[in-house]
Amino acid sequence: MAGTTQYRNVDLFGGAIAASLPSTYADVSEIRQVPDNQEVYLDTNGFASIVVDILERVEKPDTEALQFHLSDIVDEDASETKVWTTAEAHLANLPQGTPAYTLFATSPPGEKQKGRPNEPDFVGILLTMVRLEKQKTDILLAINVPHIAGQYDPAAIDPAQGKQGALLEAAVEHRTKLIETFEVKDWDLFVQE
Length: 193
Known about the structure:
Protein Transport Mog1p, Chain A; seven-stranded antiparallel β-sheet; three-stranded antiparallel β-sheet
């Protein structure tokens, strides 16, 4: 239910970055290996995940870079992925004028998901890209929301009409909190120009 989520401050990348995440999300690195440039948190009460990626800056205009990163995330399903909205974002705890953009997309289940138990009907993706030009870095904040039959009400979802359903409404709230609280505490984490 929107508005009732409890959040906790989380240190990411050894404390170099901090943000507030839902308190029901657990650090995946405690159960399996996660690449050094990534932080992954899974919802212990569902199937959603929050992934923070530090990537080399893509030398493309901002909206093209956002699309490039999305197609990299959805990989083989890029042609079937539908972007519903894109917007500029403002991260209050980053230097004034730091470019940031968000999008909302839906994607079919990836090839790795097909035939598995709990195969999603589709995955909602809330992607935020923060562009750090001097650091030659793009930071991606991705909230992935698998929609599994029996776990959501299909009648409540119609992205073309702005209807997102309960799972995506909760994810939008999580993204808002993540954007509000995201903070770089140690800029030495990045390559400096």
